[in-house]
Amino acid sequence: VDHTATGLNDGSSWANAFTDLQAALAVPSGACPNDIYIAAGTYKPSAGGAGTRGIFFDVDDNQSLIGGFPNGGGDYNPVANVTILSGDSDGDGTWAGNAFHALKVTNSESYIVGLTIQDGNADAAGTFARERGGGVYAIGSTVQFSDVILTNNNAIYGGGVFATLCPVALFSGCTLNNNEADYGGAMYHSNETNMYIWESRIVDNNARVRVAIEINNSLYTYIRQSVIANNASTNANAIGFIATNRDQDCDIVNSTIIGETKNKRLVTLQIGFGDNLNVNCWNTIFAHQTSTFDKNFVAFNNNTYTFNLTNCYIQGSTSIGTLTNSIYQATAGDLILNADYSLSQCSPGVNAGDNAIVSAIGITEDIAGNARTFGTTVDMGAYEAQTTCTLRETQEELTETVDIKVSPNPATDVLNIRTQLENVTVSIVDILGKEVLVSQENEINVSRLAHGTYFVNFYQNGEFLSAEKLIIK
Questions:
Q1: Most C-beta atoms within 10 A of its C-beta, which of 210, 216, 285, 439?
Q2: Per residue in 421-461, pLDDT tens?
Q3: Using CA atoms, how far apart are residues 386 and 366, in angstroms rounded to an integer?
């Protein structure tokens, strides 16, 4: 499929490619191979004109969609050759009037590769299929998504993806961002689905009522080396597990789960009478961006569950479950993250993981494709720091010899810096490592900073001197 092709429009070659994806999907099984290759461009389920909301790209009969090819044919490169499936069939740039799903996968064994899937709007409350899965609605399918971006989709359940009765729904190297839903802003999977989230980023999604990822009556969930961060909602949880009709199991390995500033909790467990929920985490980070939150992990109904955390980092508030070789910080702000949620080289999460689980799974690279173990011990989280910490080795020694005093701490309005040194620059960074204030004054107005934990770094002529943790109340 290539919307720029001018040949026979029969899909037999790049020169004779279909110009309409729906025409390719309509080719009967057995008439040609079921892999459909798609060249760069934007494709809408409108058959060349303004379509109705019930028209969407419908994959069945074991078809696969592979985007990311240049117009006219060539090598696969989804970054250079952006291939978009858009539900904005009326072309007005809003969700109103858009297709209920950008893509539907029905009773199929399919691969979805190298595509950007956007602009679906499953907002028809009370109609099961049309209120679920704005980006992708997958039912009864074994479907694997690779190098896929799901963005700007809306639904009542599962803004980016809704998967039900799927033996396998696997997301590898995918990004889900800026999707919205009442329940499951990024993703909702249910009813005997086995969900796999590998080396993926689920960030900046919004749930108007409940959670970024809702796992409801599924069978198994496996989250590996993924980032789930900065997802907002009214009842702001990053992940919610609900077991009311069957037992559920979940494994989380080397992932980074970071709350949005309004998050109340990170993980909610809700178990019905007589059901069992088993969650096991290794080398995983659970942290917040502010200190104004409720709890990291909350269990409702007081029924049977296990929640085991091995070599995990738990930042702030009360945790539940069994902690083994884990770092528990009672106050938010000690993790030291970079803007992409990777660990800084001097984070306490560096070299603090468990090598055994990484070795058992056979993980050799982190989410960014870097060596999974830098040094002798694996890091916590989705990323592996690729440099050693010189700050940690010298900070205590430097602090003893550098005469810099900070007061008050906690601070509210003014931070006083007292030192006999000249040309000292003060840099205040938040817990994600973002610089929020720089000054060379002895009295610094910090009243505009949000309440929470920060780090004050001191430099003289560009060289690091020392650092101190600061609480803003």
A1: 285
A2: 888 999 888 765 677 899 999 999 998 888 777 888 888 88
A3: 11
Report the distance separating Cα 232 and Cα 213, nearest Å: 11
Q: What whole-number distance in Å separates Cα of residue 211 and Cα of residue 188? A: 9
| CA atoms of 175 and 179, how far apart (whole Å) | 11
Strand-pairing partners, residue 460, are 424, 463
The pair of structure tokens assigned to 255 is 């992932």
What is the value of pTM for the model shown? 0.82
Backbone angles phi, psi at 304, to 5 degrees: -80, 120
> Contact, 148 vs 113, CB < 8 A?
yes
Widest Cα–Cα separation across the chain:
82
- SS3 of residue 191 by DSSP: coil
pLDDT band at 273 (very low <50, low <70, confident <90, very high): low
Pair 343, 302: CB distance under 8 Å:
no
Q: Give CA angle at 264 (262, 269), nearest 5°.
A: 145
Q: 265, 295 in Cβ contact below 8 A?
A: yes
Return d(Cα 31, Cα 98) in angstroms, integer.
32
How many Cα atoms within 13 Å fall on the side-chain side of residue 353?
Answer: 32
What is the mean pLDDT of the segment spanning 378-403?
Answer: 68
Is the separation of the CB atoms in 470 and 453 below 8 Å? Answer: yes
- Residue 36: closest CA among 115, 136, 149: 115
Residue 324 to residues 209, 320, 372, Cα–Cα distance (Å): 33, 12, 22
Terminal CA-to-CA distance of the chain, rounded, Å? 58
The label of the residue with tokens 């070795």 reads 359
Helix (H) or strand (E) holding 205: none
Burial 226-243 (b: 16+ CB within 10 A, else e): bbbbbbbbeebbbbbbbb
10 Å CB burial of residue 302 (0-12, 13-18, 19+) is: exposed
Per-residue exposure over 175-204, b if at least 16 CB sit within 10 Å of its own CB, e if not: bbbbbbbbbbbbbbbbbbbbbbbbbbbbbb
Considering 20-29, 352-361, 424-433, 458-467, the range whose residues carry the highest mean pLDDT is: 352-361
**Partners of residue 445 on adjacent β-strands:** 414
Dihedral of alpha carbons 125, 130, 131, 134, sign: negative
Q: Are 235 and 264 in contact (CB under 8 A)?
A: yes
How far apart CA 78 and CA 234 sit, in angstroms, is 35
